Structure formats: structure tokens, C-alpha cells
Amino acid sequence: MIDPHDLPEQHDREHHIVSPRIYLTIVLALLVLTATTVGASYIDLGVLNPIIALAIAAFKMMLVVLFFMHVKYSTKLTKLTVGAGLFTFLVLIGMTLSDYFTRAWGRW
Amino acid sequence: MSDSTAIAHGADSGAHHEHPPYQRHHFETIAQQNDATNFAMWLFLLTEIMFFGGLFTAYLIYRNWYYPAFVEASHQLQIFWGTANTAVLITSSFTMAMGVWSAEMRKKGALVLCLVLTFVLGLVFLGIKTIEYKEKWEKHHVPGLNFSVQSFVNPQSDPEVYNEYHDKPLSLDMARHTELYFFLYFAMTGMHALHMIIGIAILGFMIFRAQAGAYTTGHVTFVENFGLYWHFVDIIWIYLFPLLYLISRHQ
Amino acid sequence: MSDTIVVLPDQTTARIPKMNYLSKEKGILSWLLTGDHKRIAMLYLVSISFFFFIGGSLAGLIRLELLTPQSDLMATDTYNKVFSMHGIIMIFFFLVPSVPATIGNFLMPMMIGAKDLALPKINLLSWYLYMAAGMLALYTMMAGGVDTGWTFTTPLSTHYVNTHVLTTGMAVFIAGFSSIFTGLNFIVTIHKMRCPGMTWFRLPLFVWSNYAASILMVLGTPVLAIAIVLVALERTIGIGIFDPTKGGDPLLFQHLFWFYSHPAVYIMILPGMGVVSEVISTFSRKRVFGYTAVAFSSVAIAVFGFFVWAHHMFIMGISNYAMLIFSLLTMLVAVPSAIKIFNWAFTLYKGSITFETPMLYAFGFMGLFTIGGLTGVFLGASGTDIHLTETYFIVAHFHFVMVGGMLMAFLAGLHFWWPKMTGRMYPEKISQLAAVVTFIGFNFTFFPQFILGTLGMPRRYASYPPEFQVLNVFSTAGASILGVGYLLPVLYLVWSLKYGEIAGDNPWQATGLEWQVQSPPLTENFPEIPIMDHEAYDYDWLERQKEKEVASVG
Predict the structure, then answer these.
(1) Any CB–CB contact under 8 A between A64 and chain B?
(2) In total, how many domains does chain B have?
(3) What is the pTM of this model?
(4) By the CB < 8 Å criterion, does A43 face chain B?
(5) Among residues B34, B50, C263, C286, which is most buried (max CB within 10 A)?
(6) Neighbours of C (≥3 Cβ pairs closer than 8 A)?
(7) Between chains, do A11 and B86 touch, taking CB under 8 Å as contact?
């Protein structure tokens, strides 16, 4: 009889410990990006303003997700889970907005 | 390969696998238990993303419909407090991550320090939010309860904000839509603050347990999984800040 | 060739195993504080049956009112409350938890070779949340109920009614979390606790279906939660989010509500489809045709189910372009469901078919769900929907899929796994009779409603033009037959607990790990974690097992 402890599935989650140096780099990057996004909002870039603000926010989110939440060092399942969540979130927003944005287009 | 599904008595049915006291009996190994609880926390965070999703959807729709109202209403929020809060929360994420590291390295003192710092930063965040909310109440910008469009129909009646942004007066119709902005402001930051309060309460509990050495003997999953929750709350704020405070600050 | 596959142990010597999950601990606290997924499943079974009969009584009241064209049995306002509470109770307190929380809770860990779900305490919490929500809903009903329909459409629910929208909303909110925790538990368990050798493609299709439904529960239900919170805030504080006078859009509520409520219908049907896969395979003695297709179709239904919600809103004011997109996507979502029907049909082809009660219900499912599903495709075409929406055609459509489909599947599963859960067989003849009575009653009740819908009778109306009366009387007559069909199982299943034949481990000679252990099972399910070394629905393996047994005993 096979001992369940010896099976490969039990060992696939390596316990990778992220170093404080990486955490420090990330938190400094996040603070710099915060300052950047505040500064950018004072400059009139027209339609680029919201795009840049969201892009910076998205990048900050990726840093927190990948490093603080260890997703970069996690299993494929964890990455898939994060992806599934983001995808469903975007479907909710995107498809709802598809109604609102096209209402002004009139009949056909 | 034997045909039998070893349900009946295996050769070593008498031998018991050694397992740590905190391993629940329906799990075969502690690694399986840790994997399962970690995954469960991620799934819980998915439900949180979708819960906030409804509010973000509402925000995007109404910002698109009532952009001038949203711009002027957002000028009522002070960049100073918003940026400060963002920095506080990001730093608390750092201290939380360092807390997880301390637990993994079995450094009890460092862990307690990091948790205490996270706790304090969390309270600072809530304190700043209280200052902001109080100001909103005093200026009659709380929707449904004491809302007044005075600051938007006649921006010059509000010298602090007017001197900085020189907003044009809004028509009464558009001015009324600032109430929607403030509703979203209170709903989204309020929901966020509620999650912070719950997080801080759990942190308090964790500080006691950490001091007793519960997380520095190799069993770090509670700290790790709470860390995920805390970082998630940070991520929500990372989006709330530009969406609510930084709509347009150039004038 | 025998006309039944049932093999029971010799009744003169057979006994219920002394040590099982029911006898392990005694006393009410051992039930109320249990972590055992099987006991929690039984708690759920009793609770949902209770709510089913309340919802059913409300349905009875509806049909009584509709016997006559005038609103003479009750005031129209009361009628609005009756159909609203009927919908709320049936959907949130019966259909959504029905298969997952009872049969899924009980069987799924056993099917994957695990000792329990991943998070037993969360499982118990799930039941308590369900009970709290249910009690709150009942209280609200007695205090006067809501009359907005189960859909809480704004601005009616936020600005125009004085009924108990808040408390009912709160009950649904809490029930939603019960559902979320069940789904979360299932996903973690299926990913992390499969026994050695149990690969994804050796799982019973019942597990695949519950997995897909669980994904929907976890990702969809929170959006319902926020929709309810926003309705509550609009009603109490008047924030303006759904109020046109303040610039809000009532349609936003509907987007958020249906974003959950459409996947909710798949949450309701997918576990039932899982049951049908198991039953059809067992009673044709044949592996399910196209296992991979059926497994992937469950996931496809779950994924596509998120893209189609606005087909509930075609006439509500969405843009024409959105109508186009959602109509097209709705056509696509029907495909995976059809794939399942075809695969079940091909499973039956050249199988050794017998007609025990679970199989009768499964046949009922196949026919009635097909009709319900096809009418769903008619409604997905926006051009047709404009004429048929808010009529009895819709009512018939969803009752065909939910009652003709899901409820029949639930009964199939209940009968199929009853021997495993209780150790006793139900009485076959009366149960077959009940299945046939249900089928006949169902068709009499709901088929006329398709006709009524195409003739133009609106839904949610207590009174109607007199020319519709004949069909309504037919429908009510059918409902009384249906009621008998649903009452009988309660009576004989309870009877069987004491007087039913002893079932033994595997009365159906079915494959699946749950059938290889005693009935009722031990608390820990398996004395040792099994190792899975054969494919799902491997009837050859089962034959070899039996041969070995005979060889070793002899």
C-alpha cells in the first residue's frame, strides 16, 4: 500500500520565504508610484489622465499581489484563482458598461 | 498494480502517522491542511473582489454620466489626507509582510513588533478617515442625511476649495448629482473601513497569540492567511484613492 | 434477465451496521455542534424539506386564486405577497441549497475518497446561516411579507412599496453567505482532498457538476449581496443610486441582481445534472458516454453563465447593442446543456436499462428539462422575448427547468442515495407510483401555462381575462395531482427509516467509492484513505470485485 506521505502531490507547495530586501524594494516602489499618481493628477493630460491613474493603480496592485501576497512564488492554482477573480470582476464591469456606453448610440 | 482499493485493512493499519497537535483529523498531512486553508482564504478574497465589484461598477457608470459633478465634488476631498492614508496603508502592508516573514523565521519579538506596527498604522488610517468624515458632515456633504448642494451651485461660498481650484458653478441639475459622488465615496470608503476594523480586531487577537508564541513554532498559516486579507484591503484602497481623490486636480 | 438491478442482503440476517455516523454520538448537541458532513447534510435535508412545503403551500394558494378570473380568494396586494414569498422561499431556501447542501455535502467527500470536507466548521456555520436566514424570512412572511416579486425590481422596491423589503433582503443576504461558504468548501475539498490516484478525470461527474456550481456560488453571490445592500441604503437613507430624480439608474440594480441571478439558475441545475449522470449510468449499467464532454460542459455552463444575464432585461431599457450581444451569448450557453442531453441519450443506447425509481425521475428530467431548455432558447432570441416576457410563457419555462428538471433530479438523487444515507431501502412500488404521479401532475400544471403565455396572459396578476380560465383550471387541477406526488415521498421515506429493507453496502451494484463502504457510512467514511486505481463508471472493475469476493468467501 502506498504511503500517502510519499506521493508527489504532497510536496508541490514549496515554502519559499520572500526576503525582507524584496519587501523593502516593493514598499519603496509603491510609495514612489503613489507620489507619481498624485503628481500626474495635477497635470492636464486630457483623456490620458484616467488611463494613467488606472495604469499606475494596476501596477501597484500587481506589486502587492505578486510580492506581498507571494503569488509570484505560489502554485499555478493560486495564480489561476487570482486570474479567475480578476476576469469575473472585469466581466461584471465591462459587460454592464457595454449597456451604458451604447445607449447613446441610438436605435441602429 | 493491485486491483484492490485498499479500503480494507492495509498492512500497517495499526501504525498511526505522527502529526502535529494542530493538524485536524480529516487531513492526511499538515501540508495538505496548510494548502487547503490558504486556498480557502484566496477563494474568500475572490468573493470580496466581486462584492466591491458592484460598487466599482456603479462608480464607473455615474462618473461617466456626471463627470463635471464628480470633478468638483472630488475637490472637496483633501489630497493631503488621502495621500497620507495611502502611504499609511502601504506601509502597514509592508509591516504585515515583514510580520509573516518573522513568523516564518520564528522570530517572536520581530513578529509581535510587526503586528503591533500594522495595528497602529491601521488605527492611524481610521483616525484620518474619521477626520475626513467629520469634515464632510460639517460641510453638509453626507448624502440622504444632511446633503446640501450649496458648495457646488455657488463654489465661492467655500473659499478653501475655491481658492485652490476655481471651480465653475454647476447647474442645479448637475449639482444634485454630486450627492451620488458622495454616496459612492461613503459607501466605498465605508465598506473599506469596515473591512479595516475587522482586520484590526483580528490583529489585536493575533498580537496576544503571537506574544504567547503560537505562530513562531512552525505553524504560520494563520498569520499568512491574515496577511492575504490585509493586503487585499490595501489593494482596494490603491484603487479607491485615484478614483475618488485624483479625478482631476489640475486647474 | 431480471428487470431490476437491486441486490439486497438476506433480510433475515441483515442488520444495520452497529457503528455508523448516526449511532456514533447521541444527543441533540452532537447534532447541533457536529463537524460531520453527513450529519450536516441530514440537518439540511430536514430544513429544506420544511421550506419546500411552505413554498409549496404558497404555490397552492396561487393556483387556488387563479381558478377564477377575478381576484376573489385574496386581495391583489396579498396575491403579490404570496407569489413573492413563493419565489423567494423556493429559490433561496430550497433550490439553491437542495442538491449541494444535502446530497453534495453527504456524498462528495466520499466520492473523492476524503474523510470530510476541507472546512467542517465552516460547513456547520453554513447551515446555521441558512437557518437564521430562513427563520428571518419566515418571520417576515408572517409579519406581512414583501410584494415586489423575488426580483426586488427597483424603483418599486426602493421607492414605492411599504412592505418588508429590508428584512427579506437581509434574509436573502444571509442565505447568500450560507451558499458562498458551501461553494467555497466544495472547491477547496475537490482541489486539495482527492485521495491518491483520484485524478480529475476519474472523478464521478456528480463531483464535476458540484464543482462548477460552487464556482458560480463563490463568484456570483457576492454581487447579489451588494445589490441588496444598495437597495437597503436607497430605502433607508435615500442615497439616490437607483433614483432617477437624483440622477440614479434603476437599471443598475437589475444589472447587479441578474449578474448573480442568472448564474443562480445554473447553480440550481448543475448539481441536478450531476445526479442524472450518476443515475443514468447506474441504471443502464454503462459508463457515461463522452465523460470528458460532460465534465467540460459543466465548466462551460459555469463560465458562459456569467455572460448572459441581461437577457432578463431585454424590455427594461438596455441599449439595442447590449440586447444583440446578450442574445447571441444566450444562444451559446444552451449548447453545453444540450451536449449533456445528447451524452445521456448515448449512454442509454445499448445499455441494460431498468426502471427503478431514480431512473424514472431521471427520464422525467431528460424530457422536461429538454422542453424547458428549448423554450429558454426561444426566449433568448430577443425578438421573441419581447412578446413572451412577463407572460406565463416565462413562468412555464422556468418551472419546466426548475421543477421538471431540478426537483426531479433532486428526488432522483434522494432515492438513489437514500440507501447509502440511511441504510434502508424505500418501498419501490409506491415510489414508482409517486414518480409517475409527479410527472403527470407536472405536465398538467405547467404545459397549459406555455399556451397561456403565448395567448398573452401576463404573469404576477391575480386576475385575468375570462377566456384564460379553462387553461388555468387545468393548471390548478394538475397542481393538486403534483401535490400528491410530492407528499407521498415524505410519507414513505419516513416510513422506510423504521420499516424499510436493509440495503447493504451497494444495493444498486453501482461504481463509485461511496458504494464500496457500509450503509450508513462510518463517521470517518473510510477506515483508511482509499487509493483510486480505476476509471469512473468502470463496471468491469465492479465485476472483478464481486468475483474476488465470491472467490475469497467460497
Answers:
(1) yes
(2) 1
(3) 0.94
(4) yes
(5) C263
(6) A, B
(7) no
